[in-house]
Specification:
The protein contains 45 helices and 28 strands. The protein is 41% helix and 13% strand. A 7-stranded antiparallel beta sheet has the order 17-14-16-15-19-20-18. A 5-stranded antiparallel beta sheet has the order 7-8-12-10-11. It has a 4-stranded mixed beta sheet with strand order 3-4-6-5, covered by helices on one side. By secondary structure, the chain is an alpha/beta fold.
C-alpha cells in the first residue's frame, strides 16, 4: 500500500504537520490509520495520503486550501459503508462522522443538518417534532446524511417518498476554489450576492442542460431508481418548468466529486405512527417476481424480497434464527415483505385483508403471515436491514460480491430479467443471492465469487458486461441505489452513450477544473468520470500479491473458518466493512466506539488492522504497536460475537494478538500478577486485612499503576468448596462452579445461590480438583492477559473434573461461566468441551430452563437490572430478567445499556479511566440517576457492580441475592 499522489507521498509528515498547524481537527497519518481508511464496504482498497477528522466546516475549508496548494486530492467521507469504492482514493480523507454531526435547525418541514449526522440520530431528534426523514437505507443506524446525499440513496420506501434527490432542498457547499455557496432553487437571473465563480458555474450548467436536453430525454432510463452519473435532468428547461431544477439535485449523487457539503436542508415528512406487515410466501423465486407488479397496486409503503439463501443463512445466525422461523409458513423459496403505514389500525388491517385476497387470486391462498405487533415488526425489520451482512456471512473465500446489485428494471420485466440473469450466473459456474426492493424493480443481487482468484476477477467483469447488456435491453438503470464509485462508473458510456458522458465531464470541469498538479480535479478524482477499470486488481482489497503471513501460528482453534493461519485470517476477513459496529442502539456493540467515535476503536477498524497485520501490510504483524493500539480499548465485551451479522469475534481475536505480543515482547510484572490471581488469591483471602490495607491508603492505587479508585477487597470469609458436597451424578444434581471473583470478593452470592437452588428443588454440589487443594478455575484472568497456555492448563484441569458427570454446571459470574461455553471450545476443541458447553449455564438460565417451583414472598418496590455484556452476547440476559419477575410485587425494569465500562481490570487502569467513565455515561449511569433512592439496582457482573458503586454511588446486587431475600 504505497504510492505517490500529487506532490505528497502517502503518509507525508510535512503535510500532516501543516494540517495540525492550520486546522483544529484530528490528523491521522500512521500506517494503521491509513490502512483503516483504505477500504469501505466495497471490494476495493486504496491507501489514502492521510486522514483529517475536522471539528468544523472551517477546518474542511482550510484543509481543501492546503491540498489545493500541495496538489493533493480531497475525499469527503461519511460512515464508510459505500459498496462501490467511492469512499476510497489516493487522497486526503476527510471523516465527517466524529464532530460534524449536529442538527443545526428544524423549521416546519425542513431540517438543516451537518453531513456527519447519521440517519438514525436525525430521526431520533425529529421525533419530538412528529416528523421523520423518509429515505431509509438498511444502514440507517450508521450511514450519514452526507454520504446518503453523495450516493443519492433510496431505501425501501422510495416507492412512496422518492430518492435522496427528491428530499434535499438545498446544500451549503464548499467548492474546490474555496467559494462557499448554498445551491438550491435559483432564479433565472442571479442576483448580485451570487459570487462570480458561482455565476460562471451556473451559466455553464444551464448551457449544458439546454444543449443536451433531447439527448438526456432519450438516453436517461425512465426509472425511479436511476442514480448513475450526474443528475443532468435537473439542468434541462423541462426541469425548470416542472419544479425539479434545484441545483441541489445535481450535487446529490455526485459522490463528493463536485463540492463538499457543509450543511444540507432536508425535506421532512409527518410520521405515520402505525404499521402492519404481511409476509407473503412463494414456492419459487419467479413466482415472487411475477407477483411484485400486482402487490404494488395495493399502495404499500414497501415490498421487500428475502430469498432462500438469505433465509438459510439468517437461520444460522443465533440473533436472527427465531425471527425467521416465526415469519415462515413451511419452507418457502422466497418471501415478499409488504408494509402498510398509516395513522390508524383499521385501514391497515383492511389492507392486509386485500393482500391475502390478492395472494389467493395469484393461486397462493393462506400464504401470508400477518405481523401486527410492534416489537415483532422491529425484529423483522432488523433481519431485513441486515440482508447484506447476512449474505456476507458465508464462510470461505467465496462471497456474494457487489458489482451489479443495483440494476433496476420495470416491474413487468422483473421476472424475465432475473431469470435470464440467473442463467448468466449458471453459465459462469456460480449463483446469485437476491434481496431488497421488489417494489421498484431494484433487487440487490450478488454473484458468489472468490476475489482472491484472478480467474474469478475476470469472471466478475464478464458477468457485469452481460448483466448490463440485459439492463440496456430492458431499458433499465444499471445504477439504482448505491452509486457508481469504481465498480460502475466505467459503464456509463455503454449505458448512456458517449455524448452524455462528455456532458458529465463538463459538469465536473465546471465545478472542479483540472490543474497541472491535479489533472482530474481536487475532489474525489476518477469517480463518476475518468474512472479506472472496475477489475483493476491493483485497486482490489485482495490485490495480486495479497499473501498471508505464513509464520503466524494461532494459539486458539480457528478451524471453523477455512484458509491459512489455521483459519484465523478467514475469520478476520469475515468483516465486510459494512459498519454495523458503528451503530448506536439498544445493543452492546461497540462500546469503545460509542465512547470515542474513532475508527481505530470500532470492530471494523480493528478487523482491518488485524487483516493488514496478518498479510504483511503492517510491519511487525500481530505483535506490532499498531495492532496493540487498535485493541487497547477493546473491552472484550463479545457484543460483536452476537451482534455482528458476519460473526466477527473481536474478543477472541484480541486474545490472539495479546498472545503474539507477549511472545514477542513479554508481559509486564503487574499484568502477570493480576493474571495469576487464581494461584495466590487463596492466600490473599487468608491474609485479607493485610492484603487490603495498602489499597485503602489514599493515592496507593496510583502507585501501583491503577486509577485512583477503590480496588476490590478480599474477604476472610471467602467461599470454600467444602461448604457443599461433592458431585456424584445423582438425580436433580446441579454443579455450582464458584468463580474467582464471587469466591474471594463477594462470597455471600455463592451462598445465596446454594440456598436458592435448594429451594428450587435442586441438589447442588461443588466439584473439587483431582490434584492439589487449589480450587478449579475457568482461566478468565489468564485469557485477559493473553497467557493462552496458562489458560489452557486451567481449562484442562477444570474440564477433566467436570467431564466425570453429566449434571448441569452452573455459575454466577457471566464472564467466567460463558468461558466454558466459548473459550474452552477454542482452547481444548473436541467432544468433551462441546458437551460441557452444552450444559454450562448461569443460575438464572437454569431457572428459566428447568422452570422449578420456587416459593417466593413479595418484595414491594422496583428493581432496575443491568445486563453484563457476556450475558447479552450469549442471549442470557432475558433469563436474568425473568428470574426477578418471579418475585411478587417487584417491578423489574431492564436497563437499556451497552458496556458498563469496567470490563474486568480495564476500568482500574489509569490510562483507561476516561474511556471507562465515558462508556458508563452513555446510558447506564443516566438511567441509574433517574431511579429513586429506594430502587434496587441489580447487576450480575462483578465489574458492573463495582463500576456502579464507584461512579453512581449506589450499591448493586447480584440477582441471586435478591432471589434469596424473597425466599419464602
Amino acid at each position: 500500500m504505497n504510492a505517490i499522489t500529487g506532490r505528497a507521498k502517502i503518509g507525508d509528515s510535512r503535510l500532516a504537520d501543516r494540517l495540525r498547524r492550520e486546522t483544529q481537527g484530528e490528523v491521522l497519518f500512521s500506517p494503521g490509520d491509513r490502512g483503516r481508511y483504505a477500504t469501505d464496504a466495497s471490494i476495493y482498497q486504496m491507501e489514502p495520503v492521510g486522514v483529517l477528522v475536522p471539528r468544523s466546516a472551517e477546518d474542511v475549508a482550510a484543509a481543501m486550501a492546503i491540498c489545493r496548494e500541495e496538489g493533493i486530492p480531497v475525499l469527503p467521507r461519511g460512515g464508510g459503508t459505500s459498496q462501490c469504492g467511492q469512499t476510497v482514493n489516493r487522497a486526503l480523507v476527510v471523516d465527517c462522522t466524529k464532530f460534524l454531526r449536529r442538527v443545526l435547525s428544524i423549521e416546519g418541514d425542513t431540517a438543516r443538518v451537518e453531513p456527519g449526522i447519521t440517519l438514525g440520530a436525525l430521526n431520533e431528534a425529529l421525533k419530538a417534532h412528529k416528523h421523520f426523514y423518509p429515505v431509509d437505507p438498511s444502514t440507517w443506524m450508521r450511514c450519514t446524511i452526507g454520504g446518503m446525499a453523495g450516493n443519492n440513496s433510496c431505501g425501501s420506501k422510495s416507492i412512496r417518498y422518492g430518492l435522496m434527490a427528491d428530499n434535499v432542498r438545498a446544500i451549503d457547499a464548499i467548492l474546490a476554489d474555496g467559494t462557499r455557496f448554498t445551491f438550491g432553487d435559483l432564479p433565472d437571473n442571479l442576483g448580485p450576492d451570487v459570487p462570480p465563480s458561482v455565476g460562471d458555474i451556473v451559466a455553464k450548467l444551464r448551457a449544458i442542460g439546454a444543449r443536451e436536453a433531447e439527448e438526456i430525454a432519450a438516453k436517461f432510463p425512465h426509472q425511479l431508481r436511476r442514480v448513475g452519473g450526474y443528475n443532468l435532468d435537473a439542468l434541462t428547461p423541462d426541469a425548470r418548468t416542472n419544479g425539479r431544477a434545484s441545483l441541489a439535485r445535481l450535487l446529490v449523487g455526485s459522490e463528493g466529486t463536485l463540492a463538499f457539503s457543509a450543511a444540507l436542508d432536508l425535506k421532512l415528512w409527518p410520521i405515520k405512527p402505525r404499521k402492519m406487515l404481511g409476509i407473503c410466501q412463494f414456492p419459487s423465486f419467479r413466482r415472487a417476481m411475477e407477483a411484485s407488479q400486482h402487490l404494488v397496486t395495493l399502495d404499500p409503503e414497501a415490498v421487500e424480497l428475502v430469498d432462500r439463501t438469505m433465509i438459510d443463512l439468517g437461520r444460522s445466525i443465533p440473533i436472527y434464527r427465531n425471527t425467521i422461523d416465526r415469519i415462515l409458513i413451511g419452507e418457502p423459496d422466497s418471501l415478499l415483505i409488504v408494509e402498510f403505514h398509516g395513522h390508524e389500525d383499521a385501514p391497515l388491517l383492511a389492507a392486509l385483508d386485500r393482500l391475502e385476497e390478492m395472494m389467493g387470486d395469484l393461486g397462493l391462498p393462506g400464504q401470508v403471515v400477518r405481523v401486527t405487533d410492534a416489537s415483532f415488526q422491529a425484529q423483522v425489520a432488523e433481519v431485513r436491514e441486515a440482508g447484506l451482512n447476512i449474505m456476507m456471512s458465508m464462510k470461505g473465500d467465496g462471497k456474494p460480491v457487489s458489482f451489479i446489485e443495483d440494476a433496476a428494471v420495470a416491474l413487468e420485466d422483473l421476472a424475465d430479467y432475473t431469470e435470464r440473469l440467473n442463467d448468466v450466473f449458471e453459465r459462469h459456474g456460480t449463483k446469485g443471492t437476491w434481496y431488497a426492493h421488489a417494489s421498484v424493480g431494484c433487487l440487490h443481487v450478488r454473484p458468489v465469487l472468490n476475489m482472491k482468484d484472478g480467474a474469478d476477477v475476470t469472471k466478475m467483469r464478464a458477468i457485469a458486461e452481460e448483466c448490463f447488456a440485459l439492463v440496456r435491453e430492458y431499458k433499465g438503470s444499471h445504477s439504482g441505489e448505491h452509486g457508481d464509485g469504481i465498480v460502475r462508473s466505467e459503464f456509463h458510456e455503454p449505458m448512456f452513450g458517449a455524448r452524455i458522458v462528455r456532458a458529465f465531464e463538463q459538469v465536473k470541469d465546471a465545478f472542479d477544473p483540472a490543474t497541472p498538479a491535479l489533472p482530474h480535479g481536487l475532489l474525489n478524482p476518477n469517480r463518476v468520470v475518468h474512472p479506472p477499470r472496475m477489475d483493476d486488481r491493483s485497486l482490489l482489497r485482495y490485490f495480486d500479491g495479497y499473501t498471508p503471513d505464513r509464520t503466524v501460528t494461532p494459539a486458539l482453534d480457528w478451524s471453523a473458518w477455512p484458509g491459512p493461519q489455521g483459519g484465523l485470517l478467514g475469520a478476520v476477513e469475515m468483516c465486510n466493512n459494512n459498519g454495523t459496529c458503528r451503530k448506536f442502539d439498544a445493543g452492546t456493540m461497540c462500546p469503545s466506539y460509542r465512547a470515542t467515535r474513532d475508527e481505530q476503536h470500532v470492530t471494523r477498524g480493528r478487523a482491518n488492522t488485524l487483516r493488514l497485520a496478518l498479510t504483511g501490510q503492517i510491519p511487525g504483524g500481530l505483535a506490532s504497536d499498531e495492532v496493540a493500539d487498535a485493541l487497547s480499548l477493546c473491552v472484550a465485551c463479545k457484543g460483536c460475537k452476537r451482534e455482528c451479522p458476519t460473526g466477527v469475534d473481536m474478543a477472541k481475536m484480541k486474545l490472539e494478538a495479546a498472545a503474539a505480543r507477549n511472545a514477542a515482547r513479554g508481559l509486564s510484572p503487574k499484568d502477570r500478577i493480576i493474571a495469576s490471581m487464581p494461584r495466590w488469591a487463596p492466600f490473599a483471602a487468608m491474609l485479607a486485612p493485610f492484603v487490603n490495607w495498602p489499597a485503602m491508603i489514599p493515592g496507593a492505587p496510583k502507585l501501583l499503576g491503577f486509577a485512583d479508585r477503590k480496588l476490590p477487597r478480599f474477604r476472610r470469609n471467602a467461599f470454600h468448596d467444602w461448604e457443599c458436597r461433592e458431585p456424584d451424578g445423582r438425580a436433580d444434581e446441579v454443579i455450582l462452579l464458584p468463580d474467582l471473583f464471587n469466591r474471594y470478593f463477594e462470597p455471600e452470592n455463592l451462598r445465596a445461590a446454594l440456598r436458592v437452588l435448594r429451594a428450587a428443588g435442586a441438589d447442588p454440589a461443588v466439584a473439587r480438583p483431582l490434584r492439589g487443594m487449589r480450587p478449579l478455575d475457568d482461566g478468565r484472568t489468564y485469557l485477559a492477559a493473553g497467557m493462552i497456555d496458562a489458560a489452557r492448563a486451567e481449562a484442562r484441569r477444570t474440564l477433566e473434573v467436570l467431564s466425570r458427570w453429566e449434571s448441569p454446571v452452573l455459575g454466577l459470574e457471566p464472564s467466567c461461566l460463558t468461558t466454558l461455553r466459548d473459550e474452552f471450545l477454542s482452547l481444548l476443541p473436541g467432544d468433551a468441551a462441546e458437551k460441557l458447553a452444552a450444559r454450562a449455564m448461569l443460575v438464572s438460565e437454569w431457572l428459566a430452563k428447568a422452570k422449578p417451583d420456587l416459593a417466593l414472598k413479595p418484595l414491594e418496590g422496583e428493581a432496575h437490572i443491568h445486563g453484563h455484556c457476556h450475558q447479552k452476547a450469549f442471549g442470557a440476559f432475558p433469563a436474568a430478567v425473568a428470574a426477578l419477575t418471579r418475585i411478587p410485587g417487584l417491578k423489574v425494569t431492564p436497563i437499556t445499556s451497552s458496556c458498563c465500562g469496567m470490563a474486568g481490570s480495564f476500568g482500574y487502569e489509569a490510562k483507561n479511566l476516561p474511556v471507562s467513565k465515558a462508556m458508563a455515561e452513555l446510558s447506564l449511569l443516566p438511567h441509574i440517576r433517574k431511579t429513586g433512592a429506594e430502587a434496587i439496582i441489580v447487576a450480575d457482573g462483578t465489574s458492573c457492580r463495582h463500576q456502579i458503586r464507584d461512579l453512581a454511588g449506589r450499591e448493586a446486587v447480584h440477582s441471586v441475592l435478591l432471589l434469596e431475600r424473597a425466599l419464602a
